[in-house]
Amino acid sequence: MTDAPEPYENEKRQVKVKDRGQPVNPLVAVTAVAALVCLVSWIAYVNLFAPPKPAPMDEKGRANVAYIRGLLKASNGDYSKVPEEDHTKLDKMTGGRGGMVYGLYKAGKIDF
User: Fold this and answer.
1) Which of 43, 25, 23 is nearest to 35 (CA)?
2) Coil, strand, or helix at residue 9?
3) Cβ of 72: how many Cβ atoms within 10 Å?
4) Within 10 Å of residue 42's Cβ, how many Cβ atoms?
5) What angle do helix axes 98-107 and 84-94 make, rounded to 10 degrees?
6) In Å, how far are 13, 58, 103 from 16, measured between CA atoms?
7) Per-residue tens of pLDDT for the chain, all 112 residues
8) Alpha-carbon distance 58 to 20, whole Å?
9) Cα–Cα distance between 31 and 39 in angstroms, integer?
10) What are the φ/ψ torsions at residue 35 (nearest 5 degrees)?
11) Alpha-carbon gap, residue 38 to 26, rounded angstroms
12) Please, which residues have CB within 8 angstroms of residue 93's CB and are 6 or more apart in sequence?
């Protein structure tokens, strides 16, 4: 049979690690940690706490806003002064909430 050594059951194995040189300068370590904290804080703010950005508007959206703005100015914020055909068009654009748009405008919550 072979003369293989028996496993060491009761002895601890020691691993020697080569010296990796000089330790890190404390100023470099503090700067790296500060940069990491700033990066994580910024990412958390952008993804969790920043207010939502308004969606970009296309030409149709700009035309709708201009139309509603014109109706609001022409009727001086009074929904009852809007002609019936404009009521229908406004309700179609706002999903049946044309009167609410006028109410929000009067309350000063939206500005066209």
Assistant:
1) 43
2) coil
3) 21
4) 11
5) 90
6) 10, 67, 78
7) 566 666 655 666 667 767 777 888 999 999 999 999 999 999 999 999 888 887 888 898 889 889 988 888 888 878 888 888 988 898 888 888 888 888 888 887 877 6
8) 60
9) 12
10) -65, -40
11) 18
12) 64, 67, 68
Q: Which helix (H) or strand (E) holds 41?
A: helix 26-44
If we measure between CA atoms, which residue out of 22, 45, 24, 42 comes closest to residue 34? 42
For residues 66 and 88, the answer to whether their CB atoms sit within 8 Å is no
Cα-trace Rg, the chain: 35
Residue type, 82: V
CA distance 57 to 46: 22
Amino acid at 69: R
Tokens describing residue 101: 């748009």
Q: Classify residue 3 by its DSSP letter.
A: -
Angle at 25 between CA 21 and CA 30, to 5 degrees: 140
Tokens found for residue 36 = 């990491």
